[in-house]
Every structure is written in C-alpha cells, then in structure tokens.
Structure of ABC transporter ATP-binding protein:
Amino acid sequence: MNAPLITLENIGFDYPTHPVLSNVNFTLNAGERVALLGENGAGKSTLLQIIVGLHKTTTGNIVAFGQPRQSETDFREVRAKAGLLFQDAEDQLFCPTVLEDVMFGPLNLGKDETEAKAIAEETLQSLGMAQYAQRITHKLSGGEKRMISLATVLAMQPEVLLMDEPTNGLDEKAEKRLLDHLETLPLAMIFVSHDRKLVERLSTRAVMIQDGTLVEGVMHSHPHVHTHSHMHIHAAGLDAGHEHDSNTPQHNHSHGETAVRD
C-alpha cells in the first residue's frame, strides 16, 4: 500500500492570544478529496497553512511526501508539491497581468520562460479563462480574481491541492465550471468550504475541527426516500438546506451518508 501523502501527528498550535488546535491527527492518501469543516474561527485556514509551513506548530509532527518536515527548507519542497489556494485572492495575485501571475509559479520552480508561458496558457484554457491572459489583474472582479488565483496554483502542477473556500465570490456559471474542472483532476485535495453543494459533490470524506481537535466523518446507512448517489454531509459549519426533487418516486434504500457526531 502506498504511503500517505500527508500525515499530521498530535499537532497543536496557539496564537499569542489564544490556543487554536490541540492533538490534531490526520492522514491524506492519494486520490482522496477531503472536506475540512468547522465553525468560523475554528482553525481551518490555520491548519491548511500549517501543512505548508506558514505557521510553526507548538507540538506534534508533520510528514509530507515521505519525509518529516520541520525547517523552512523542508517546507519549501512541500510548497512545491502542495499548492495552497488562499481564502483571499488578494493574497495570491501580485503581478501586473494575469499571464504573468500564472507564469510566476512555474518560473519559480525552474521552468524557462517559454515553458512557463505554455503551462500558464494551458492552465487558463482548462479553466475557461484563456481570454483573461493579458488583462490587468487588479482590475478584475472578485470572482475573476478567484479563478485566476486557482490558475496560479494549478500552474505549479502540484501533487496535492489545498483550497480555502474555493467558490468564494463565484457566480453560478463560474462555480459550475470550477467544479467540473476539479472533478477531473487526479490530485488529492483538502478543501475548506461552507458551500454544501461543493462539499457534497466534490468530497470523498469529511473531517471537522471541533473544540480545537479533528473529528473524522462517520459513514452510516439509513432508509432514505429518494435516489441519488452523491455524498451527504450533516455537520456544523455548512450552509443549511438540502433539497431534492419532490417528484422523485419514494422507496427505501441504504444510503451511505457522512455525518460528524458531536
């Protein structure tokens, strides 16, 4: 069996004013798409940033891509393999044009300008954003900046994708395009979202930060009165409301549903 891509062992983290995480254990395996849930302020964004070394833990160990990670040098390699989409697009975009922003990652990884440009253009095309290549980045709308931010991450061709509220600011059409694309990617993913539709469609399992620690989603079956195949998430930190077609014929069946127990 292949080794996990990322393992967190007894992770703790405190901000100067308050503790955030305590005794967090987590494993990400190849092909998994894990929804990271929890209330606002629970530490979800912090945990993603810990994985790539942007915060130094107070306790515990991180093993990523087969190696223990402690120093800044260790985490530089992690950041080359695990792309992080920040919650705020303004934290990700800093070049004058869209193409330059998307080229930056490949150039930083040692690609020459011709190859970096080809990767950037292909990435923008895959997200339906090719026409934005020469646009001035700071003049884009919030939703457009969100998609370009994702392009900057995907252009680095990561092995793991970490996303913090990836659908923030997207209209329905852009969100569908994003989800359609993410579903085709073979990458392992961890993503934070309060968007129930995104979580149920994209995730293969869910975990929740609760009182500073991580609680694994629990699969269970129960009679249900409609037919569908996607995952159900019933946990705090998700938008309320989950609707199904009332015209669907009623019949009972066992249905794998993910919940997080209190």
